[in-house]
Structure formats: C-alpha cells, structure tokens
Amino acid sequence: MNHDGSEPKQITSTRSITFQPAVSGDGRWLAYTTLTGLKYEIRLQPAGGGRARTVGHPRSHLNHTPSFSADGKRLFFSASVDGWSNLFALDLADGKL
User: Fold this and answer.
1) 9 pLDDT higher than 90
2) Stated pTM of the model
3) Beta carbons within 8 Å of 67's beta carbon, 6+ residues apart
4) Cα of 25 vs its chain's centroid, Å
C-alpha cells in the first residue's frame, strides 16, 4: 500500500472473518484473530504475506486480541480456558506459553 492509502495490498487469504491485526515492532510478523466455525483462533504469519500458522492456548476455543511485546519475542493474547478469560504470553522462539 502507498503512504497515502492508495493501492492496498491484500495480505491474508482466509475464508473466515479476520480481525484484530497486530504487527510486531520490527515489522516482520503479523498476528490476527480469525473466526473459523465456532472457534476464534490467532494466526501468525510474515507481515509481507505467506503461510500462516495457528497459535494460542490449545484448550481454548476463544483465543483473541493478539499484541506483541516491545522486543517482538512474545505474543500476548486473551484466551478463555475452563470458563475464565485470562491473558497469556507465547514465547515465539520456542512456542511455550
């Protein structure tokens, strides 16, 4: 996309509702929430486009609101587990919560 907003570039190609985008501080990664069936998932992909992977809490059907740490090493998000919504941090290097 140009600086004036003209010629936008489509980055995702999903057949679902896609919202809540977040870009890492270094501009390399894009995280966003998708609604697939009855499940909210967070997808992580290269910011310029490319293959996305699903991240989030494995026991939750409601992962949403992704946000990167200032250093870009962690992804924070909300997830509903056991009936309670809490905040989680995902280490992007090793995938651990």
Assistant:
1) no
2) 0.89
3) 22, 31, 75, 76, 77
4) 14
